[in-house]
Amino acid sequence: MALNDNLSNALSHIMNCEKVGKKTVNVACSKVITQVLTLLKQHGYVKEFKVEEHGPKQYTTVTLLGQINKCNVIKPRFPVKKDGFVKYEKRYLPAFDIGFLIVSTPKGLMTHHDAKKKNLGGRLVAYVY
Predict the structure, then answer these.
(1) Is CATH 3.30.1370.30 correct for 6-64?
(2) pTM of this prediction?
(3) 83, 25, 73: which is closest to 52 by C-alpha?
(4) CATH of domain 74-128
(5) From residue 8, how far is each of 34, 86, 87, 126 by CA, in Å?
């Protein structure tokens, strides 16, 4: 059964495999999923990922490290101004400086920490800790 939100499906599948202790997981491939996985890799939540072709479809194989406690998409995609991240940090993250929000900005997907440094606002996409 396929649902409409590929990013939500991918993060849910990663979270479920993380909970049961699997080392690798296959998720659907898209530009947004690849960008989110790049952020997760940069911050040490996943070891690596690579795009593989299985027939006509592409999948991303993600190697897990066991570092993710929770990851999920944020629906609806709330708009956030450059100085409005604190409200959402309190809502979605467990404590100060633990995890990050993923924000879609005019400069691309980035963490809320980078968006604050670059003085950018955007729309919330997901959170990880």
Answers:
(1) yes
(2) 0.92
(3) 25
(4) 3.30.1490.10
(5) 13, 23, 22, 9
The answer to whether the CB of 10 falls within 8 A of the CB of 33 is: yes
Domain residue limits, the chain: 6-64, 74-128
**Structure confidence at residue 2 (pLDDT):** 58
Quick one: tokens of 31?
A: 């530009």
Q: What's the half-sphere exposure (Cβ side, CA atoms, 13 Å) at 104?
A: 14
Cβ burial of 102 (10 Å; 0-12, 13-18, 19+) is buried
Instruction: State the pLDDT confidence band at 1, using cuts at 50, 70 and 90.
Output: very low
In the structure encoding, which two tokens stand for residue 105, read together?
């900005």
